[in-house]
Structures are given as C-alpha cells and as structure tokens.
Specification:
transport; Solute-binding_3/MltF_N; 6-stranded mixed beta sheet; disordered N terminus; Bact_solute-bind_prot3; D-Maltodextrin-Binding Protein, domain 2; globular; 277 residues; single chain; 12 helices; Polar amino acid transport system substrate-binding protein; signal; 3-stranded parallel beta sheet; alpha/beta
Length: 277
C-alpha cells in the first residue's frame, strides 16, 4: 500500500513538473519555427472544408489566419500556419498529445472537456441540437424521434445523453460526411446534429434540397478555442484574440461572408465586449 501510494505520488509530481515546464514555451516555439500549428476541421462546411480547387477554407480557417496575423505582429515577422485535420472523435486527444498549438474545431465547451484541455474564454460561437431529415419524414416534435434510428457522428458530446433521453437507436459514423451520406442513403430516418451544421447543409440545395431542419433547437452551448494546460502566456494571447473578434465585429463579418444566419450569441458577445481592451 505504501509503495503504491509512493508510486502514485511520484507520477503526480512528474505530471506537475511536466506541465510546469510547458509554461511560457508555446509562444517561444511558434516564434522559433515561424509557424502556428492549428488543429482544424475539414468536414464541416462552412466552418472548415476543402474548396473545389483543394484549398482548405472556412470560417474557422479565417480565424486561424487571424491568429497567425496577430502572432506575426507580436513577433514582427511572418507566421505561417500548419493545419492538422481533426474530426470530432480525435480533436481533444490531438490537443492533449501536443499535436497542435491550438484547436479551433467546432468544439462545444463543456465541463468534461475542461478536465483535460484548456478551453479559453470568452467563447467564440455557439450551436444547439436538432434533427435534419427528409421533408417527407413525419417528425414534428422531439417525442416523434423516440425509439427511432438516427445517424450521428462519433465523438459528438450529445450522443449519449440524447440516446438516453429519447431511447434512440443511434448509428454512429466516423465523421460528419459519413453520417450525412448514411442519412441520404436511408440508413436512418434523420441526422441528430447541431443547428449550425444543419443550416449550412441546406445552403447546398442540389444535395440537400429534399431535406429540412425538423425540430426546434435544444441545449444550445458555446464553442471554445482550446490549447493544452500549462501555458498561461499562450492561453492569455488566445483569450485576447477571441475578445478582439467580438469587439471588432470579426465574427459578425464572417457570418455574412460564409452565408450563415446571424446568431443571437455573436450579437450578444459583440455588445458585451465592444468596449473591452
């Protein structure tokens, strides 16, 4: 028992020392290599996707570019971006493992994720849960999906809770594109997803013209920019950048650019931070 306690204590101290050693190092590494490593998504139009010419684009790609610009101003030299593609199922682990300096990947800010990664404040966007299905599918209320087969993406935080709440038969797929394709193929009656993705899909009338958002949004939650714990300087830089996005109306402009419906969250945050430094 004493030996076990000593081993556990040593492991805890080692972890603490490792975390402390990270403090203040991320900014130095970015400066040294002249590059920001960003975990970002390519399966979530218009926040992150590949354009027909192969370019990686989207609202969150614009935000990462803005971070690089601010770092360049800080270091007085150009800072490029290395993009590491993530999906819902691996984005948190990639941050934990240090595969990127920062994550901007349509990630909901919640208590479980805060236990393992540093989600900086303020949050930058928000979304809630809904169902997208064919217009002909008889879904009018949330109770109408009870016991039904719905497609979902692996790693979505709402899967377990909604399965319990509505006794759902969830068909989980590796990513957003796969879940969407399964819905179109008729392998489920609807896709349980967030309203931001659902609304953006419907912009593509050629592919999604027979579909619609079926249910009022529930459980609206904010999205956060994340990094590893242990570097207060870099976390502070990220926090200042997100604050500036709200203060300067950056997110309002990007919603317009990417043809997203203006959200109450972004408007409220712009008002809240318009006088912030």
């Amino acid at each position: 028992m004493i030996r076990l306690f000593a081993s556990a204590s040593l492991a805890a101290l080692t972890l603490l020392a490792s975390t402390s050693a990270m403090a203040g190092k991320v900014m130095d590494k970015i400066n040294e290599r002249g590059q920001l490593a960003a975990c970002i998504k390519l399966d979530y139009r218009p926040f992150g996707y590949r354009a027909p010419n192969g370019d990686q684009v989207g609202l969150e790609h614009d935000l990462v570019a803005d971070l690089a610009k601010r770092l360049g101003q800080k270091f007085n030299k150009p800072i490029t971006v290395e993009k590491i593609s993530v999906i819902a199922a691996n984005r948190v682990q990639f941050v934990q493992q240090g595969k990127c300096d920062v994550l901007i990947g349509t990630m909901t800010d919640n208590a479980e994720r805060r236990k393992v990664i540093n989600i900086v404040q303020p949050n930058y966007y928000s979304s809630g849960i809904t169902v997208i299905a064919r217009k002909s599918t008889p879904i009018k209320t949330w109770d109408d999906i009870r016991g039904k087969k719905l497609c979902v993406s692996q790693g979505a935080f709402w899967n377990k809770e909604y399965q319990r709440r509505y006794d759902l038969d969830l068909q989980a797929f590796a990513g957003i594109a796969e879940a969407g394709q399964a819905l179109q193929d008729g392998r489920c009656i609807g896709n349980l997803t967030d309203d931001a993705l659902a609304a953006s899909r419907l912009l593509d009338t050629a592919t999604w013209g027979d579909f619609e958002i079926k249910l009022p949004v529930q459980d609206r939650e904010p999205w956060g920019v994340a990094t590893q714990y242990g570097d207060d300087e870099f976390a502070g830089f990220l926090s200042s950048a997100v604050t500036a996005w709200h203060r300067e109306g950056t997110l309002i402009a990007l919603e317009k650019k990417w043809e997203l419906q203006p959200t109450a969250f972004v408007k409220e945050m712009q008002e809240k931070y318009k006088n912030a430094k």
